[in-house]
């Protein structure tokens, strides 16, 4: 898929992968913003949970991957994904997109579309050498659900059902 962005605009996008993602000052504001937009915004933000996930990424990069994206020097997106066997078969290893967040102000723009494409290229590039059979997306934050469905389907994803949440 070719981008409609100019070369100059594409040049403003920087993806950071690997251990550098554990650079908490870049990612934490995005994580906090995601929490504020999510279905769970009424719950307090859990810094120890965030720190634990950063620890997973840092301590076991073979099975835990992450990236963040800057646009014009500002953090605008991040993703956290894991490599694991699919339920029911230890021979069917998949990459599970645990969390993917694009800032609301760029989400539905040409820049956001380009960033989405670059994130997917990066995740596929991380997954392929591990023998991943594909990428499974958890869509559980409640953020931009319909838009996410449209983007995933147009990118060739197969809809497998849905995630539902019922408060107790």
Features:
single chain; 168 residues; alpha+beta; Aminopeptidase; 5-stranded mixed sheet; 6 helices; globular; Acyl_CoA_acyltransferase; plasmid; GNAT_dom; N-acetyltransferase domain-containing protein
| Number of individual domains | 1
Structural class: alpha+beta
How much of the sequence lies in strands comes to 25-35%
CATH architecture field: 3-Layer(aba) Sandwich
Shape: globular
Protein name: N-acetyltransferase domain-containing protein
Organism: Thioclava litoralis
InterPro entries: Acyl_CoA_acyltransferase, GNAT_dom
Keywords: Plasmid
A few lines on this structure:
With 168 residues, the protein is of the alpha+beta class. It has six helices and five strands.
Question: What topology does this entry show?
Answer:
Blueprint: H1 7-10, E1 13-17, H2 24-37, H3 47-59, E2 64-71, E3 74-86, E4 89-102, H4 104-107, H5 110-127, E5 135-137, H6 145-154
Parallel strand pairs: 4-5
Antiparallel strand pairs: 1-2, 2-3, 3-4
Pfam families: Acetyltransf_1
Keywords: Plasmid
Domain N-acetyltransferase: 44-126
